[in-house]
Amino acid sequence: MIVPGRYLHDISRSFICSGKAPTAHQASLLQTACDPLCHNIDLIKAGLTYREFAECCWPLPKKVEHSRYMMMAHGCGLADEYPCMAYAVDCAEWGYDGVFEENR
Fold first, then answer.
1. What gap in Å lies between CA 66 and CA 10, rounded to an integer?
2. Prior bond of 22 cis (ω within 30°)
3. Domain total in the chain
4. Do residues 30 and 22 touch, judged by C-beta distance below 8 A?
5. Which residues lie closer than 8 Å to 5 by C-beta, 6 or more apart?
6. For the whole model, what pTM was predicted?
7. What are the start-end ranges of the H helices in 1-104?
8. Is residue 16 part of a domain?
């Protein structure tokens, strides 16, 4: 969703009840989700191509490759907007190249 101030926010789809600690499994799942996001966000710099980004992104474990989200990253808008960055394994089939630009 896009909130006031044009900030793009992707809301969580699961919640821990207030006053409850996450289970060890829940904490592990959160870490599994956060590690790749932090790694991939740190890669994004002006001048980096989408293909370079895909090749340097957190390696997706083969066991979950079949259920991955359809793209590694995308622009913001009312839906999955241009540009869409393909996973490295998908670049040949439907990926295209572009360049990250500052303030775009």
1. 22
2. no
3. 1
4. yes
5. none
6. 0.75
7. 24-43, 50-56, 91-94
8. no
Residue 52 lies in a domain: yes
Phi, psi of 75 (to 5 degrees): -70, 180
Question: For the chain, how long is the longest CA-to-CA vector?
Answer: 48
Please give the backbone phi and psi of residue 21, each rounded to the nearest 5 degrees, phi first.
Answer: -90, 145
List phi, psi (to 5°) of 97: -105, 155
Domain annotation covers residue 3: no
Per-residue pLDDT, 46: 96
User: According to the model, what pLDDT value does residue 99 have?
Assistant: 95
Q: In which domain, by residue range, is 103 found?
A: 46-104
Residue spans of the chain under pLDDT 50: none
